[in-house]
Write a structure and sequence with these properties.
single chain, 154 residues, mainly beta, 4-stranded antiparallel β-sheet, 2 helices, DUF1618, DUF1618 domain-containing protein
């Protein structure tokens, strides 16, 4: 089933509301739009032909029926969109430069949430959660997040 959220995505990047869509038919276009300053309309920023991009950078031409989906809009760089290519990988596409700038292993079960965390967050201490046994004093946020997932799966 083709659900719209897989091929269309709204998000905030560089402080502005953006809309990105990928077509499901040849020539497989990746398009991005930004809400104008007055909030009255959308302006197109980018349009990239993915077939050309895939063939030149990944040696992987797209085919009809391929499942290229939008995973997320980069919250810091409005030129970058992350796309899932079938269930093989997530690729980072710089739409301004029209090139693939990264590729990462991907699984449909992986959750991707665009966010910017302050650099101090990973090492800051979390106070006692008052009765929750899985959170102990002097654990960092990374410790709590990494181990709380296993706690909920019990």
């Amino acid at each position: 089933m083709h659900t719209p959220f897989r091929y269309r995505r709204m998000g905030v990047s560089q402080g502005r509301l953006r809309y990105v869509e990928v077509s499901r038919e040849e020539p497989f276009l990746l398009s991005s739009f930004v809400l104008d300053d007055g909030g009255s309309g959308w302006m197109q920023e980018h349009r990239v032909v993915l077939n050309k991009l895939w063939a030149s950078h990944m040696s992987l031409p797209l085919q009809q029926g391929a499942t290229t989906r939008i995973v997320l809009i980069d919250p810091v760089n409005a030129n970058v969109v992350y796309l899932a290519v079938d269930t093989l990988a997530v690729v980072a596409v710089d739409m301004d430069r029209e090139e693939v700038i990264g590729s990462y292993p991907y699984s449909d079960t992986a959750a991707c949430i665009p966010c910017v965390l302050p650099p101090w967050l990973g090492s800051s201490r979390i106070p006692s959660a008052g009765g929750k046994k899985f959170v102990r004093k002097n654990k960092t946020l990374v410790d709590v997040v990494a181990y709380s997932d296993s706690y909920y799966k019990r």
